[in-house]
Write a structure and sequence with these properties.
Blueprint (H helix, E strand, L loop, with lengths): L6 H15 L4 H13 L10 H28 L3 E9 L8 H13 L3 E6 L3 E9 L1
Antiparallel strand pairs: 1-3, 2-3
Helix pairs in contact: 1-2, 3-4
């Protein structure tokens, strides 16, 4: 039995898409609907609720950090140096694909950080530091 994407998930994806793109054009709405229909169904059955709450608690701090970095980045100019590191996945992400994806989105949200790659045990990131 194949599971299908729920209308709530499609609507949530469409709303997120429209908020990200800030455009209500017909083409943009159709693209958002297409993305919502193509995404696989999300399930929280395998996700530990405590780990999910831990990730959700990180969102406000990550948002503030992203805004702060976005405001200071133009003032920083080209005086930065890259720092590439390979760090383990957070303990709360364990082997859950949804929590790992959420973590990658949060890491990539901040303007000075870029995810270069992942493995089963680590995440490789590029971080701009002021020299």
């Amino acid at each position: 039995m194949k599971r299908t994407t729920t209308p709530l998930q499609i609507a949530g994806t469409l709303v997120a898409w429209l908020l990200l793109t800030a455009s209500l054009s017909t083409l943009n709405v159709l693209i958002g609907l297409g993305i919502g229909l193509l995404l696989p169904p999300l399930t929280l059955r395998k996700t530990n609720r405590g780990n999910l709450i831990t990730m959700l608690r990180l969102i406000p701090g990550t948002t503030l950090q992203g805004i702060r970095e976005g405001l200071t980045l133009p003032l920083q100019g080209l005086r930065s140096r890259p720092d590439i590191s390979e760090d383990p996945w957070p303990q709360w992400a364990q082997r859950d694909p949804m929590l790992r994806f959420g973590w990658l989105v949060m890491v990539s949200f901040t303007p000075k950080t870029l995810v270069l790659g992942t493995s089963t045990d680590t995440v490789r990131t590029h971080l701009e530091k002021v020299s």
